[in-house]
Write a structure and sequence with these properties.
- The complex is a heterodimer of chains A (106) and B (759).
- Chain A is an all-alpha fold and 106 residues long.
- In chain A, 73% of the residues lie in helices and 0% in strands.
- Chain A has a single domain, classed as Helix Hairpins (Orthogonal Bundle).
- In chain A, α1 runs antiparallel to α2 and α2 packs antiparallel against α3.
- Chain A starts with a helix and ends in a 13-residue tail after the last helix.
- The relative contact order of chain A is 0.13.
- Chain B has 759 residues and is mainly alpha-helical.
- A two-stranded antiparallel ribbon of chain B has the order 1-2.
- The longest helix of chain B has 47 residues.
- About 10% of the residues of chain B have low confidence.
- The chains are: A mainly alpha (106), B mainly alpha (759).
């Protein structure tokens, strides 16, 4: 039997992998992908909690799964906007290395 | 007419003169001078005589042999080839005084110790019309002020109630208030003030008149009268003040005026030897009196902190001190006396007065003889009830011993001085010591103030007389004088009267005042267990005073080959080179006027002065009463002894000075006295090593610690800024990490708060 814990830990691990990628990768697209990973990790956690409480005396709780659908939608929109920004930046600076896109002096 | 309610007019008049001369007549004079220079192209005699900066100029040594009237021409010649830069040239921005200033190196420079006559303006040069207008304004103002002061005195003399309580206080201006405490500029006239007002205004008036003659032709003529007016205002404020605040204002202002007037000839060429040179002398006067002022201020503050008031009436009332420790009051009074020590040139702060002789002689007469140096005596007299009844006996002991010691000390130095002004300067120091002794041993402030009163007149007379001599022969060294009585009879006669007075010759005013003090000193010794030290001080000083004053008289006016047994020397007694001439009426008239109080003030007022000044406390005595007391005759014999010895040595010149200086001990004593007990050298060493040494330590402290703290604070801020800037790196992922880290911390805190983790 796969317990709730396992799903939550999976979500945590995925979140950490995504966070690591978001904070340490230099390629903007890679950072985007990592952010997607983080969002999906959150989805897993939400759905896991939602299915863990199904069939109990208070009735079914589908909140987690509904929230997960919202997140997917938002993630999709955000990915579109982010990619548009990356293309705009590339057209201006000819690079998508986030270390290079820095106007501050030092 | 109620003069007393117009007491405020007295300082207002010279203040008005000050403003008028400063604002109206002097600028007009400068304009006229500029126009004249422009018109003549800078070759008129006044401007060509810019001999400043030319010490030891060979022309000057020849000038000594010429008559005074030719000095102008000599300077003209000296100026022409060497006039630096020309008057209209690059120095056009300077004050005209320095440009046009030949502060006449009036001859007699060939002997190193003959101090040139101070450059008292060129003989034969006339004063500009606007300058004369300015001095006339000053004289008129002083005359009116004197008349008001005289009116006040007469009103006091005829109204017993005024004598007892003084006039009502006159509130001039409310200065500041804290809550219900008001500090105001208040004038209060009582008998002491009335006497001082008359002294100050009369001497100032006569000095003003005298200066018209003495400073004639001097380019700084207007500036002189401005500064004289300023001084007079300050001194009047000082004596009129009803509380310490006003007195201190006057105190500081007279110090400033003294500085300005001593340094009047500030662009005189530096001397080649030890003669007083105006700029450092002025600074020395100011700094030395400042030292005294330090103790003075602390004393005032102690009194204020313990009693809560600056007002003299309250401070002098014993009721104010019910809960004040006597030790505190004694300490405060001794500190206040420190101020008097500085201002009145007592040991050890006396060193400035002889150097102050670098200023013009009328200044010496007014400030350093009659009035400013009397401010310290006035201060102690004003606080006399405090000194006498409230503070412990130590305070008056300090006053008495310092005064007595200084009297003797200065008298010994005066014995060997050859510059006539220096003799008079040390004499002033000595007589001020007498005044302090009088205050210390007297039952009221009467004896000390009476001596101040008589001293003001005869000392001013002596100084003005010496100024007359200096004006005539452009020289101050007594070894080059002699027999001048023939050339300047009025000067000689009045000088003789004043010399008799200061020596305590019976009948003259000085006799009455000095005798009172000596008698009281003897009584003091009797009541204090046979301790006759102060009496010894006074009696020995009396002998020395008579001796050195008559030495000065004989060396200047008398001499062996003259008439009247050496008292009225003739032409053959004259040892100098320049031919002396008489003085104009503006100079000998003040002398004649001053001779009157110098001679008869004692006879007229000797008996009742004490009673008057102390508000009726002391009894009225018969003026001839002193002659009944055997002690008085001791004093008379001593004075006559001093006169006689001086007559033998310098009048008929049968006893040579080598009797005293021939042997090695005598030579040693002479050297010590001539060097003023090496005090100036000692002070120089103290300043060089102690004061400047401490100062360099403080500089190091300032550089490393104070500046270190300030710079360190700045560096700290910079360092924090440096560190903080790294948070604004502009790097995306740094920001991301910061966001995540912050969110983590908040979540952990929430968990702690709710109690989910941690205890």
């Amino acid at each position: 039997m796969v317990t709730l814990n396992a799903f939550v830990i999976l979500g945590a691990i995925l979140f950490c992998i995504g966070l690591f990628g978001a904070l340490s990768k230099r390629n903007a697209v890679t950072i985007l992908m990592s952010i997607e990973i983080m969002l999906n990790a959150v989805n897993i956690t939400l759905v896991a909690y939602s299915s863990a409480f199904m069939g109990h005396t208070h009735g079914e709780r589908l909140t987690g799964q509904v929230f997960a659908i919202f997140i997917i939608t938002v993630a999709a929109a955000e990915a579109a906007v982010a990619l548009a920004m990356i293309i705009a930046i590339y057209r201006r600076r000819s690079t998508i290395d986030v270390g290079e896109i820095n106007l501050m002096r030092w | 007419m109620d003069f007393v309610s117009y007491a405020w007019v007295i300082p207002a008049l010279p203040l008005a003169a000050f403003i008028i001369i400063l604002g109206v007549t002097r600028p007009l004079e400068m304009l006229a001078r500029r126009r004249e220079l422009a018109a003549t192209g800078g070759h008129d005699p006044a401007s060509a005589a810019s001999a400043h900066g030319a010490p030891g100029d060979a022309h000057d040594t020849h000038a000594s042999a010429l008559t005074p009237a030719e000095h102008g021409a000599v300077h003209h010649d000296a100026g022409q080839p060497g006039a630096p830069g020309g008057p209209g040239g690059p120095e056009g921005a300077h004050d005209m005084d320095t440009l046009v200033g030949a502060h006449g190196r009036g001859g007699a420079l060939e002997a190193p110790d003959a101090h040139a006559g101070g450059g008292h303006g060129e003989h034969g040069a006339a004063t500009a019309p606007w300058a004369q207008a300015g001095s006339s304004v000053g004289i008129v103002a002083m005359l009116l002020a004197f008349l008001v002061a005289l009116g006040i005195l007469i009103q006091f003399l005829t109204t017993p109630s005024l004598q007892q309580h003084g006039a009502p206080e006159f509130n001039l201006y409310n200065w500041f208030s804290f809550g219900n405490l008001n500090y105001a500029i208040t004038f209060h006239v009582d008998t002491l003030t009335a006497v001082m007002l008359v002294v100050v205004t009369s001497v100032s008036l006569l000095v003003h008149l005298y200066s018209v003659g003495y400073m004639a032709g001097d380019p700084g003529y207007s500036r002189f009268f401005i500064e004289l007016a300023l001084f007079t205002v300050s001194m009047l404020i000082l004596v009129l003040g009803a509380n310490f605040l006003v007195l201190f204002i006057g105190w500081e202002l007279v110090g400033l005026s003294s500085y300005l007037l001593i340094g009047f000839w500030f662009d005189q060429a530096p001397p080649v030897d030890d003669v007083p040179y105006p700029p450092p002398a002025a600074l020395k006067a100011f700094v030395t009196t400042r030292l005294g002022d330090f103790g003075f201020m602390i004393g005032i503050l102690i009194l204020f902190v313990t009693t809560g008031t600056f007002d003299f009436t309250k401070l002098n009332a014993t009721a104010t001190y019910t809960h004040v420790d006597q030790f505190t009051v004694t300490a405060a009074m001794i500190l206040v006396f420190c101020g008097a020590v500085g201002k009145s040139a007592q040991f050890p702060l006396h060193v400035w007065l002889p150097d102050a002789m670098a200023g013009p002689t009328p200044v010496s007469a007014l400030i350093h003889a009659a009035t400013m140096v009397a401010a310290g005596v006035y201060l102690v007299a004003r606080l006399f009830p405090l000194y006498h009844s409230v503070a412990g006996p130590q305070s008056l002991e300090v006053v008495g011993y310092v005064g007595g010691f200084t009297a003797l000390f200065a008298a010994t130095i005066a014995l060997v001085q050859n510059d006539i002004k220096k003799v008079l300067a040390y004499s002033t120091i000595s007589q001020l010591g007498y005044m302090f002794v009088g205050l210390a041993v007297g039952p009221t402030d009467g004896p000390g103030i009476f001596h101040l009163f008589t001293h003001a007149f005869f000392k001013a007379l002596l100084f003005l007389g010496s100024g007359s001599v200096i004006h005539a022969i452009a020289n101050q060294d007594m070894r080059k004088m002699g027999g001048l009585a023939k050339f300047m009879p009025v000067t000689a006669a009045t000088f003789l009267i004043a010399t008799f007075s200061i020596s305590g010759f019976p009948g003259f005013s000085g006799f009455f005042s000095k005798d009172a003090i000596i008698g009281l000193a003897y009584d003091y010794g009797t009541t204090h267990g046979g301790n006759y030290t102060i009496y010894a001080f006074t009696i020995v000083t009396a002998f020395l005073t008579a001796f050195y004053m008559f030495r000065a008289y004989f060396m200047t006016f008398g001499g062996r080959s003259g008439s009247a047994l050496g008292f009225w020397g003739g032409e053959r007694a004259y040892r100098g080179e320049t031919r002396p001439h008489g003085s104009p009426w503006v100079m000998w008239l003040p002398l004649a006027i001053l001779a009157v109080p110098a001679a008869i003030a004692g006879l007229v007022w000797g008996g009742s002065f004490d009673n008057f000044v102390s508000g009726g406390i002391a009894p009225v005595t018969n003026v001839l009463a002193p002659f009944a007391d055997g002690l008085t005759w001791v004093g008379i014999v001593v004075a006559l002894g001093g006169i006689g010895l001086a007559w033998l040595m310098y009048g008929i010149e049968v006893v040579p000075a080598t009797i005293f200086t021939g042997n090695p001990i005598g030579k040693g004593v002479y050297a010590v006295l001539a060097h003023k007990y090496y005090l100036d050298e000692l002070y120089g060493l103290i300043i060089k090593y102690l004061v400047l040494g401490l100062a360099s330590l403080v500089v190091l402290f300032d550089q490393y610690i104070i500046d270190g703290v300030v710079n360190g604070a700045a560096s700290l801020v910079r360092g924090i800024g440096d560190a903080s800037r790294r948070t604004e790196s502009g790097g995306l992922q740094n920001y991301g990490a910061a966001i995540f880290g912050g969110a983590l911390i908040i979540i952990l805190l929430l968990f702690f708060a709710v109690g989910a983790i941690g205890r």
